[in-house]
Design a protein that fits this description.
This protein is of the alpha/beta class. About 40% of the residues lie in helices and about 25% in strands. The protein has one domain: Ribokinase (UDP-N-acetylmuramoyl-L-alanine:D-glutamate ligase), CATH 3.40.1190. The protein contains 11 helices and 15 strands. A 9-stranded mixed sheet has the order 6-4-1-10-11-12-13-14-15, sandwiched between helices. Strands 3-2-8-9 form a 4-stranded mixed sheet. Strands 5-7 form a two-stranded parallel sheet. Helix 1 (about 30-40) crosses helix 9, helix 9 packs antiparallel against helix 10 and helix 10 packs across helix 11 (about 295-300).
Length: about 300
């Protein structure tokens, strides 16, 4: 299969603690995005870091079942990373991580040498945790030089990103190489505690991305594109949990960029893409774990 999208970032096992004990689910924000993109019908390759152990093989199998594939450089001799997720009363989760992160940088020549790589996505822990974070940043710059669509989701984990000034600087470097930045309202408030939502979008847009999207949970999505602000209402559902909701929205936005490059220039195309992302996220939160919908499921809800 040709690679439409290269996703670089962590794949791990979410250990979800509930009333009935622990459940182990494949997770990691970039891995969730890779699954979401594959379920939207895009050839997707994930460069990550997993152990050659039972958990790592489970991750590889689930990524493969989604239609994506692991880059052959993803396996290491270290144990597969984990994140213990504790669900709050509103269905959101907080995490305790056991993770190491180290991947090779991908060069512009690497990307040009793989047929049909049209987009590169990264973010989350992979962007901030060393030694792999520097390689990820280099990969973003190479992707921009190679003419790929570059997307970033900071998905801030305060316990892992270091001090605020360093994390903000790293995010700024990544955003400067990006065409599309998506972040949650929690990310925005952590990165820019003194700014409101619109000011955050303005601040990030000034770094260089053509489109900045803010997900706001039950308030829907807000974006700044070439022609100003565009909003989309959420899909109203009964929430099972919110694990993977932002990742599903991110995958949908990258999918929309691949489907129609007017996303970056047309308010109508952006509005349609935001609506699609809202529906994709809504379906995801209506079921347990990071389980993004297929393209057919999204199309059916959009009518």
């Amino acid at each position: 299969m040709d690679t439409d999208v290269l996703v670089v970032g962590e794949a791990l096992i979410d250990i979800v603690t509930g009333e009935d004990g622990d459940r182990e689910l494949v997770g990691g924000s970039p891995a969730n995005v890779a699954v979401g993109l594959a379920r939207q019908g895009h050839g997707t390759r994930l460069l990550t870091r997993v152990g050659d152990d039972e958990r790592g093989r489970r991750i590889a199998e689930q990524i493969g079942r989604s239609g994506a594939r692991l880059d052959e450089r993803s396996f290491s001799g270290e144990p597969t990373s984990t994140a213990r997720a504790r669900l709050r009363a509103d269905g959101s989760a907080e995490y305790d991580f056991a993770i190491t992160w180290d991947v090779p940088a991908i060069t512009a020549d690497d990307l040009r040498g793989v047929r049909a790589v049209r987009a590169v996505h990264t973010g989350s822990i992979a962007l901030f945790l060393e030694p792999g974070g520097v390689a990820v940043l280099e990969t973003l710059r190479a992707a921009r030089a190679a003419g790929a669509i570059v997307s970033v989701d900071p998905n801030i984990r305060p316990a892992l990103v270091g001090d605020h000034a360093a994390a903000l600087a790293r995010f700024g470097e990544a955003a400067a190489s990006a065409d599309l930045v998506k972040l949650s309202d929690e990310d925005a408030h952590w990165l820019y505690p003194d700014l409101d939502d619109e000011e955050v979008l303005d601040e990030i847009a000034a770094l260089g991305p053509r489109l900045v999207v803010l997900t706001r949970g039950a308030e829907g999505l807000l974006a700044r594109g070439a022609h100003g602000l565009v909003e989309a209402a959420p899909l109203v559902v009964t929430v099972a949990d919110t694990i993977g909701a932002g990742d599903a929205a991110m995958a949908s936005l990258v999918s929309s960029a691949l489907d129609d490059d007017r996303l970056f220039t047309s308010p109508d195309a952006l509005e349609a893409a935001l609506r699609r992302a809202a529906v994709t996220a809504g379906i995801t939160v209506s079921r347990a774990g990071a389980n993004p919908p297929t393209r057919a499921e999204v199309d059916a809800r959009l009518g």
